[in-house]
Amino acid sequence: MIPLPAGVRVWLATGHTDMRKGFPSLALRVQEILHRDPLGGHLFCFRGRRGNLLKVIWHDGQGACLFTKRLERGRFIWPSPAEGVVTISSAQLGYLLSGIDWRHPQETWRPTSVG
Predict the structure, then answer these.
(1) How many domains are contained in the chain?
(2) 83: which DSSP letter?
(3) Which of 29, 95, 100, 102 is the most buried (most CB within 10 A)?
């Protein structure tokens, strides 16, 4: 994963998005639906209808970036449109990109006290 500068927020566009769209069209959705500045340095994530394709746009101060990830199995866990505007942490983004439920990540091992 690309290291994110401090203060960068990750926004999820709830619902589904037409995955044929490129940076200009997705940036327009950010302005019209999320009411945010797509060139402000934050990450904006979009999921396709089938749920296995994700696009992330980011303007790093030098230019526009468009990242795409397709899961071979499973789907990206996504908020419903009723949840409105959703922001997640960079750690939750890591879970999301791995296909893990970022809302309730589960530890697979917990240390036990030795006694």
Answers:
(1) 1
(2) G
(3) 102
| Structural domain boundaries enclosing 87 | 10-98
- 3-class SS of residue 96: helix
Residue 107: the pLDDT is 61
Going from the C-alpha of 4 to that of each of 9, 22, 83, 111, the distances in angstroms are 9, 22, 25, 30
Q: Looking up tokens 């044929």, which residue turns up?
A: 20
Q: Are strands 43-47 and 10-12 parallel, antiparallel or unpaired?
A: parallel
How far is C-alpha 97 from the chain's CA centre?
Answer: 8
Per the domain annotation, does 1 fall within a domain?
no
31 C-beta neighbours (distance < 10 Å), count: 12
Whole-model pTM: value is 0.85
User: Does 109 map to a domain?
Assistant: no
Q: Model confidence over 54-71: pLDDT tens digits?
A: 999 999 889 999 999 999
Give a yes or no: residue 103 inside a domain. no
More confidently predicted of 105 and 16: 16
